[in-house]
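look at this stuff:

>
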Amino acid sequence: MSTEVVFLYSYKLRFPFSLFSKFIRVKLQGDVKKRLIDLKSNIEAAQ
């Protein structure tokens, strides 16, 4: 059995945060990947 999950994030940064948008985007992507890895590990451990 296999399940595919899609997470969509949408955001718009206002000044002055827009100056750091590339850094923030990379940071958020990394955080989401880590959370998904942890979620997968926890689900597999529970089975």
User: Anything to note?
Assistant: Residues 6 and 36 are 11 Å apart (CA to CA). The chain has one helix and no strands. The longest helix spans residues 21-46. The mean pLDDT is 82.
